[in-house]
Design a protein that fits this description.
The chain is of the alpha+beta class. It has one helix at about 10-30, and strands spanning about 30-35, 45, 50, 60. It starts with 11 loop residues before the first helix and ends with a strand.
């Protein structure tokens, strides 16, 4: 989304840093676990990017 070559977006590094910071803040405030504890094998599909087959059910809860 940021382009490439001589006309690359000048805000690319800032946007990537901001995204990293947002992810850190989310993991600091919330606990994220697999919905089923016995879900130890995750099948993946390989298209342009690798992703979990059928989604990845998660349980999100506030940290105490």
């Amino acid at each position: 989304p940021f382009g490439a070559g001589p006309r690359v977006c000048i805000g690319q590094r800032f946007a990537q840093l901001e995204a990293s910071l947002l992810i850190i803040l989310i993991f600091k405030k919330f606990s994220i676990d697999l919905k089923s504890p016995d879900q130890n094998k995750i099948e993946t599909t390989a298209n342009i990017t690798q992703s979990p087959k059928g989604g990845l059910p998660l349980k999100v809860s506030l940290r105490s």
